[in-house]
Amino acid sequence: MFSINPFTTLSAVIPPAVIQGYVLFMVALVAAGTLFDILHKGSAKYFFDNLRRSKGRGAKPVGGGEKAAIAVQTLVVDVLASGEFCNTRRRIAHLLGMYGFVIHVAATVAMVFNPAAGAIWAQLWWLGGLMVCVGGYWFWFFIRVDVAAEGQSPLRVMRADLFVLSMLASTTLGLAWAATGGGAGVLFSLYILATTVLFAGVPWSKFAHMFFKPAAAFEKRLSEANGTHEDLPTLSRDDPAQRDRHSMELLKNAPMDMGLGIKREAPRHF
To answer: Which listed residue, 59, 78, 141, 244, has the most CB atoms within 10 A of its CB?
Structure first.
């Protein structure tokens, strides 16, 4: 089962060209949804304007070589390793979901457009799907802030949950469909429905954030390099100018190390 291309079972009912056309249509929906999201929210305009303002106010210039190094650091630390997550469990769950989703989608495309693809693609398809399920369900039932810290029911659903739920539904139904022999039955219909919601719901879900977060991480690192620090107080209070920038008067002369505070224990006070 783990070495068989599950999409070959559809050829007797649905022409391969139709499935391939569906995959291309989903790619077009993601591109159109992301473009709509950029125009509607003004995300690209915000990032470019912020970069321009940061460059004008920077205390020190950042050369092309340093910018390239910052871009590589952003790619390796913030994108590939999800370095923005301080919580280890959340970071592992995110990495499982992210890499699992990429592997699962890549294997799907390979098997749909090449029915004779080797068994390795079927195995990667299963591996990626299982990674998404492990990371996604772990996050949904045990790591979500409103569940772990606020005591809300794990069955509570909001519009912001559209991306993770549709991704889990698509992956879970796809694996269940393949495990039961494939074909064009009810499970396949539900699989297609969940997948369509996932890729067509880009303007209303967090799908597009995977394109925005690298830009935001790069902008943050660049502002630290040129000295603007996004107009936030720096970690040093030795400089009177930096000390006076702090928004709270009582913290201007406070020591940098003030203890663990709320990090002393897990937030479980619901």
So the answer is: 78
